[in-house]
Design brief:
The structure is a homodimer of 110-residue chains.
Chain A lengths: L1 E2 L10 H8 L2 H13 L2 E2 L11 H14 L2 E6 L2 E6 L1 H7 L3 H16 L2
Antiparallel strand pairs in A: 1-3, 2-4, 3-4
């Protein structure tokens, strides 16, 4: 099992985490991962109206910021939220963002 | 007393708030305002190594995102954090960001 380059927990930077989540598509991916747990990255976001290249860019931003952890298994990339790591370095941040995003989603659906 | 254009509480958007805080200078301004309360904008950030034009841009991003509230009094612009508004729409978000930033600041100072 090979792993792609991604920051150690102590190297996760607040500004990068905020920047990674400050995008509607990436926020949607984060919300989905919060519900589903680990997923092949082609299983999340494939239905979004975003080109595959753009989606790959979004996955990379999330991974390099330390928001997600990617594990390569053969030709599949499994992606999950780094919930424990984020909670350790920025307690409450991920939950407040997820709650805020859920609130918005509910409002948008009426 | 005149007020500049800034979003009503219900128009504050999560992505914009995250984006506004996802910058080292703006995060520093937010941290300072959390300590000082309302300040003339030339009193905060004037010592940062940032051009005045850039600083004005940062203030505008924070204001337009709904992170800060600006009140114009004559030639002075008073700036404050919209803590109550942010806590109302995204509970816990501002505190978790401020805690995370404080933690980083302490680490940087050794």
């Amino acid at each position: 099992m090979r792993e792609v380059s991604q920051p150690a927990t102590e190297a996760i930077r607040l500004v990068e985490v905020l920047r990674a989540m400050a995008d509607p598509v990436r926020l949607e991916i984060v919300q989905r991962l919060a519900v589903t747990g680990e997923e092949p990255c082609n299983a999340i976001g494939g239905d979004l109206d975003v080109h595959q290249t753009t989606l790959s860019h979004h996955y990379r931003v999330l991974r390099e910021a330390g928001v997600t952890w990617t594990t390569v298994q053969g030709r599949t990339r499994l992606v999950r939220l780094r919930r424990d790591d984020l909670d350790a370095v920025f307690p409450g941040l991920l939950d407040s963002v997820l709650n805020g995003a859920r609130h918005l989603g509910a409002a948008a659906r009426g």
